[in-house]
Amino acid sequence: MLLTNYQTDSFYDEMFSEEGGIRQSYHILKSRIEGMDDKELLKRKASAEKALLSLGITFNVYGDEEEEERIMPFDIIPRIVTSFEWKKMEEGLKQRIRALNLFIQDIYGDEKIIKDGVIPAEIVYSSSGYLKECKGIKPPKGIWIHITGTDLVRDGDGQMLVLEDNLRCPSGVSYVLENREVMKKTFPELFASLSVRPIYDYPIRLRGMLEHLSDKPNPNIGVLTPGIYNSAYYEHSFLASRMGVPLVEGTDLTVRDDKLYMRTTKGLKQVDVLYRRIDDTFMDPKTFRKDSLLGVPGIFEVFKKGNVALANAPGTGVADDKVIYSYVPDFIKYYLGEEPIIPNVPTYLCSREKDLKYVCENIGNLVVKAANGAGGYGMIIGPVASEKEKEEFVEKVKADPRNYIAQPVLSLSRIPTLIEDKLEGRHVDLRPFILYGEEIYVMPGGLTRVALRRGSLVVNSSQGGGSKDTWVMG
């Protein structure tokens, strides 16, 4: 039996307690797995992988010499979250998004949080995500952050922590939706016996949120993609198709008389709401990067004048900065007068002299990250780095301390994962997706990313990670 020899290796395991007992939420799953022989489970795994391959769910790895599209690895052992656990996560994520939205509104407005000394002005202004061009802008309905993917981790004690926020163009929700469809076919009997909260309505809710941003009864909506060579192009086309709206590139759009139009076979058609999947500075060569071939000349002025709603609003990337992330608990207290429901991972700011000294002397025990790094790049995991790598990274940090943070190496929780023909524990995180429209909606579940390499703590697909379906119990 695949579960017979499973070892937790002293890590917090999502399925098994330290004493080796099964956690209550996994009882039915365990009995189902034990009720089938090993060959049957492996057969279902092969069937799921074949289904995903036929769906063509792919991503590109930037910097890969072969430049080949890859299938996101998928594991059929689901992650199960109890309704009690989920309620706390949901409340914590809603609290966080409200505070972040108020912060972005404030720094591009009256800057009260800076004047009151909660966050230094230089930290905000020096962030690569801060856009001075957004000063004084008031986006439709006062919402800056429409779609968020917040990364959560569970530490060695089982406590849930926020690892980082993704506010510009968070990706991965297409994998969540497709994984669920595959799992329904892989374990139909489990779905019949468990009350798993549905997620199929996410594209409907996404479209409803986008419609809310316009005052028109039936606004014209589009999804803006950088094109087929973008790593998340599959998701862009997937969401456009599921919402029933056009997928467009910058060359499909034009600005006329301070309005945004889409070129169609029947002439120009005004666009009222645009879900953009390109970074801020590539959006408009007239305002930002003059060398950008991906954006639409003049679109920022159209947005400033209130003639098009952009989701997410330009300028939200300032809150993706990992230095500013460390202040989010302070934002929650300042704007909402509340204690954070989900705490941050303890963080050292290298821009602080005391923190810099500690990081340089203890880099072998820390994870050090670039403030605007992503995808597992621009970071070092001290315990597994060579002496040369640590020395070189210390020099990088000393040369540009503002743009580095450090965190303790967390013993991320693990989940049984089917590796070849046996079940082994692998480290995971969780990215729930949040929509901010007329109200805040948190998709029940999200993308559980799993580090498939033995001992690895890096779950990103570009670094060899895969994904699991996440089941929130009703």
TrEMBL record:
InterPro entries: ATP-dep_Glu-Cys_Ligase-2, CP_ATPgrasp_2, UCP005522. This is Circularly permuted ATP-grasp type 2 domain-containing protein. Residues 78-451 form the Circularly permuted ATP-grasp type domain. It comes from Leptospira neocaledonica. Gene3D superfamilies: 3.30.1490.270, 3.40.50.11290.
